[in-house]
Design brief:
The protein is built from two helices and 13 strands. It is mainly β. It has three domains: about 25 residues, no CATH class; about 90 residues, Phage tail proteins - horseshoe like beta roll fold (Roll), CATH 2.30.300; about 70 residues. The protein is elongated and about 70 Å long. It starts with a helix and ends with a strand.
């Protein structure tokens, strides 16, 4: 379907509302109610983590037709993200758009969408909570009480309700698009160098160094 293809290219969602086709950008302010997830509280289990930087793109590239000059031009744009400066990202890896678009405006629009998509993928995971019937896809989810770098806001990509006998009902949220401190990678842990014990004694050890006999 053409609408779904455009939605994928522009990092949006394609829907039919009252026989009208609507293309909405993902992550836009949609005024949906925010769900609050706390631990301890309504969170039962969670699995959230930043993406693997070894599989992260540092920018995008796309080609378009410059009709005035009569040639194909390529545009490259680096992403403006904190983690792009992470030492784990040693090499620049561009997310290349294979198709050649019609003009520069469309090329810039695609690059903007790819950067937005990269930001959305910065961290992801799932949260299972007590039954939350009001939560909707693309609503914001506020996480509190887990730990720094995890706590913050996420965008709900999808939700699944489940009921079981004796276990009550639960809601599992698939989340992405971390905000407000969520999805931040822990810095490198500093280690305190261990001091070597001073040698004692007045003899020579077997290595010929002053110290105790070995």
């Amino acid at each position: 379907m053409t609408g779904q293809r455009y939605a994928k290219e522009l990092n949006g969602a394609f829907k039919i509302r009252d026989k009208t086709a609507v293309l909405l950008p993902l992550g836009a302010d949609n005024e949906l109610p925010t769900i609050k997830c706390t631990y301890p509280g309504n969170i039962i289990t969670w699995r959230l983590k930043p993406r693997d930087l070894r599989r992260a793109f540092t920018g995008s590239s796309v080609r378009y037709v410059d009709r005035e000059k009569g040639k194909v031009v390529e545009i490259k744009r680096p992403y403006k993200e904190e983690e792009i400066e992470d030492p784990a990202l040693k090499d620049s890896v561009l997310n290349a758009i294979r198709s050649t678009v019609k003009d520069e405006d469309q090329a810039k629009e695609l690059l903007k969408a790819r950067e937005s998509q990269s930001k959305r993928e910065k961290a992801s995971g799932s949260i299972t909570t007590n039954f939350e019937p009001e939560v909707q896809a693309e609503a914001l989810c506020t996480v509190e009480g887990i730990k720094q770098g995890i706590d913050g806001k996420y965008r709900v990509e999808s939700r699944t309700h489940k009921a079981s006998r004796g276990g009550g009902a639960t809601t599992t949220l698939s989340v992405k698009d971390p905000q407000d401190g969520a999805g931040k990678r822990e810095g490198a842990k500093t280690t305190t160098p261990t001091k070597k014990p001073a040698l004692t004694g007045d003899g020579l050890n077997r290595n010929g160094r002053t110290g105790t006999q070995q």
